[in-house]
Every structure is written in C-alpha cells, then in structure tokens.
Amino acid sequence: MSLQERARRERFLEKAAATAGACRKCQIGFERRHNVYGEGDPCARLMVIGEGPGETEDLLGRPFVGRAGELLDKMLAAIDLPREDVYICNTVKCRPTVLDGEKLRNRAPVPAEMANCRPYLDEQIEVIAPQVILALGAPAAKSFLGVHFSITKSRGIWYEGPNSIPLIATFHPAYILRQGGMAMNETKRQVWSDLKQVREKLDALRKPPEQADLFESPPVI
Ligand code: URA
User: Fold this and answer.
1) Whole-structure pTM value
2) Total domain count for the chain?
3) Distance CA 111, CA 123 (A)
4) Residue 221: inside a domain
5) 65 lines ligand 1 (CB under 6 A)
6) Ligand 1 neighbour 38 (Cβ under 6 A)
7) Angle in degrees, CA 126, 130, 134, rounded to 5
8) Domain membership of residue 167 as a residue range
9) Which ligand 1 atom is the nearest neighbour of the CA of 63?
10) Which of 70, 106, 125, 154 makes a 20 to 30 Å CA pair with 173?
C-alpha cells in the first residue's frame, strides 16, 4: 500500500468521522458524550465490528477500550494481530443507553439506530476494504446476515459479507466476561476456534498463487 493511498484513506476517514460526529438522526445522538467512530489501520486486512460503544468508550471516544476491549486485545494478540494492525468499529457510533433508576445502563442498539448508522459503517468498509470482517456478537452478525442469524448455531462459519468480503461471526467478548466457570471455558474454546479461522483465512489470502496455477495450460513454445 503506497503512502499516498494510506494518507488518502486517513483524510477520508477523518472527514467521515467529523460528519458522523455531527449526526443527530437518533435520540442517542443527543445523549452520548462522544461519537465513537472507529479507529485503527486505514489499510487493515481485518475489520472487527462490534455492537455499540459502552460507558468507557462513550467517555473516551474510542471503541473497545473497556473490559471487553481488553479481552478483545488479548484475542487479537492470540492470533498475532496487534490492535494497531486492525480496524475496530461498531454497528452504531453512539452509546445506546437505558435509564435504570438513577443510572444509565448499556443496551443493544435497536434496528432503527443500526439503520441510521449503517451508511457510516458502509463507508468505513468501502474505504478500508478489509480482506476479512469479524463480527462480534449477535447484533453485529445479524446486521449483515439477517435477523434470523443465530450466533450460537452459526458462528465460526464463513459468509459472503458486504462487498463480497469474507465475514465470520463469533461471541462478543462482553458475553465471554459475563459467563463463569465451565460455560466460560467452553465459550472461550469456541471463540479460539473462530479466531484460528480468521488467522488461516488471512494467511491464505496473503499467499502468492501456487506455482502450478501459473502454468495451468502448458506454455506454447
Ligand atoms: N462493546 C461493543 O460492542 N463495542 C465497544 O466499542 C465496546 C463494547
């Protein structure tokens, strides 16, 4: 990737983040502290898409920087991907909340919020053009694969994602953290298996074509 192309993408994403930051299509746009647009390598081969910002993300304006984010960093490191090498964002850029007594709690984004935010996500996918997309959790997976997608039954399978990019879904790190004991170990085992698939896909896509493929038909001399 040329330095010019990297700079072009950075400029584009900076402008797009400013546009998204001014968005007030949803009520949560008025309530959030920061619009959490996304961050990472604009030339990333892997794009990780979560659900929506939580409290820490809303406070800091960065995706996956709370407890779930710490676990995500470890998950990525386990497949030799430092956080800086991937692009991380969410289906919605503003923190969806619900008032519970005096306290604001996180909630899953509703379909209308995801639909309002989708153009920003589509733009990110278009400009970064990752080779692989990893969807974290059911809401992110459903936003690409339809409302009937079941994360428990259909995670760890490759799908054709947006712009024909291979997409795989796995459990959200926050879901792993909510579990305990044996259940947590089993979920971690499944997530590890999905992550290994991501690593294998990235490796396969980097490989030069087999020598044999170059000479599919014998050269005419
Ligand atoms: N959970 C998400 O889905 N996204 C974040 O950015 C943080 C927690």
Assistant:
1) 0.93
2) 1
3) 19
4) no
5) no
6) no
7) 110
8) 3-216
9) 6
10) 125
